[in-house]
């Protein structure tokens, strides 16, 4: 089994889709040769962003599911926290701190979509540049909100 981080389908590596699933290799003889060719172009992650993982498909899928479940739970908690603080902001006379805390929660959850594999699980054909842009956008919106809040 191998962890697939995507492939290049043309000359522009920014358009490469990211695939984050577990790939089951066919049941082969006891000895095989596996040729792996990483991309060493001008993309954000030249080569492999993470090491390849080999193992039983059950273990790899369970590990991936555990990571996805934990990420989804954290994102849901941040979304609930953001909604709660936004509601307080509306109810308590527009205190700026509550609005900034809500914005920090939204941007932290949004950034977690791209720093984990969640975005690519929901939209597997998403190009690299979309994830990179979304990650920077949430970071650049959350940083001023954090500065204003603190």
Please provide a written account of the structure.
With 150 residues, the protein is mainly α. The protein has one domain. 55% of the residues lie in helices and 3% in strands. The protein is built from 4 helices and 2 strands; from the N terminus they run E-E-H-H-H-H. The protein has helices at residues 57-91, 96-115, 118-122, 128-149; strands at residues 2-3, 22-23. It has a two-stranded antiparallel sheet. Mean pLDDT is 76; it is low at 1-9.
Count of individual domains? 1
Q: SSE string, helix = H, strand = E?
A: EEHHHH
Going across the major beta sheet, what is the strand order? 1-2
Span between termini:
47 Å
Q: Main β-sheet: number of strands, strand sense, barrel status?
A: 2 strands, antiparallel
Structural class, from secondary structure content? Answer: mainly alpha
Main traits of this protein?
150 residues; mainly alpha; two-stranded antiparallel ribbon; 3% strand; elongated; disordered N terminus
Summary?
The protein is mainly α. Helix content is 55%, strand content 3%. The model is unreliable at 1-9 (pLDDT under 50).
Question: What is the secondary structure topology, with strand pairs?
Answer:
Layout: E1 2-3, E2 22-23, H1 57-91, H2 96-115, H3 118-122, H4 128-149
Helix pairs in contact: 1-2, 2-4
């Amino acid at each position: 089994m191998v962890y697939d981080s995507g492939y290049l389908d043309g000359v522009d590596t920014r358009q490469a889709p990211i695939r984050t699933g577990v790939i089951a290799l066919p049941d082969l003889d006891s000895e095989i040769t596996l040729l792996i060719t990483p991309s060493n172009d001008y993309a954000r992650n030249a080569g492999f962003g993470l090491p390849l993982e080999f193992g039983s498909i059950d273990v790899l899928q369970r590990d991936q599911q555990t990571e996805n479940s934990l990420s989804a739970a954290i994102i849901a908690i941040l979304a609930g926290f953001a909604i709660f603080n936004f509601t307080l902001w509306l109810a308590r006379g527009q205190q700026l701190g509550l609005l900034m805390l809500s914005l920090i929660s939204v941007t932290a959850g949004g950034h977690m979509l791209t720093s984990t594999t969640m975005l690519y699980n929901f939209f597997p054909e998403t190009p690299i540049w979309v994830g990179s842009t979304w990650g920077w956008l949430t970071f650049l919106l959350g940083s001023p909100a954090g500065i204003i809040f603190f």
